[in-house]
Amino acid sequence: MIIERARVPLSRWQQAAVAMGSAIGALVDPRRADLIAALGETTGKPAFEMVLERMKKSEEGRAILLERPRVVSEQVGHAWDLPENTFGAAYAKFMGSRNFSPDDRPPVRFMETDELAYVATRAREVHDLWHTLFGLPTNLIGESALKVIEFEQMYLPMCMLSVIGGTVRFNEKQRSMFLKHYFPWAVRAGRQCTDLMCVYYERHFSEDLEQVRRKWGIIPAPQHPK
C-alpha cells in the first residue's frame, strides 16, 4: 500500500529549523500532535533507518514491509467484533473507551523515501497497540512511560525529548511516582520484550491477550500505587 502524504523535501538547515520550531511548539502545547510528529520525523531518520534494517532481517518484519498494513479503520475495524479475551478486542476497548479513532494520526511528511515513510507511519500507528499491550493509560504519566519504551525500542530522539518535557510538566507527586515506579519499569519493559516493530500485530488480533503478552515478553505496567 502506498503511503498517501504530501512529501516535503527539506535541506539540512530546513530540517533543523523545523525540528527546533516543532520542539519549542510541542513544549508550549503538548497537545499539538502535528508538531510532535514533525519533531520525530526531522530528528529520527537514523533511528528509522536502523528499524528498517531490523525489519528486513525478521520474517514478520519483511512481511510487514512487503504488504504494508495500515492501522486504520478500514483494515482493523474487525477488532471490534472479536471475543473479549483477544488482543484485538482489548485494542478496540482501549480505543472505544477513549473515543479514539485509528484514523486520527497525522500523515508522515518529511521522510526522504517511501520505505522510510512507511516505517515512520508504522511506528506512529502502532502506538495505541503498545498502549494496549502494556496496559498504559493515556494520561501524562502513561504517555511518558510509553515514550521510554519507544526510545528503548527505536532510539528516537523525540521520545527522550518527550519524556524530559513530560517530567517538567509533572507536579511533585506525579514526578515522584514516575521516577520511582514507571521510569524503571519502562526501561526494563522496553529492553526485555521482543522487537516490537517486527511484529505483524494484525495477524495476532484473534489471539488471547495474555498469551501474546507472554509470547512477546511484555511486562504490563505497574498498578497505580496507593
TrEMBL record:
Residue positions binding Zn(2+): 127-128, 131, 143
Keyword NADP (UniProt): no
Localization terms from the record: Mitochondrion inner membrane
Top-level taxonomic group: Eukaryota
Catalytic activity entry: a 4-hydroxy-3-methoxy-5-(all-trans-polyprenyl)benzoate + H(+) = a 2-methoxy-6-(all-trans-polyprenyl)phenol + CO2
Keywords, sorted A to Z: Lyase, Membrane, Metal-binding, Mitochondrion, Mitochondrion inner membrane, Ubiquinone biosynthesis, Zinc
Name of the protein: Ubiquinone biosynthesis protein COQ4 homolog, mitochondrial
Subunit details: Component of a multi-subunit COQ enzyme complex.
Organism: Arabidopsis lyrata subsp. lyrata (Lyre-leaved rock-cress)
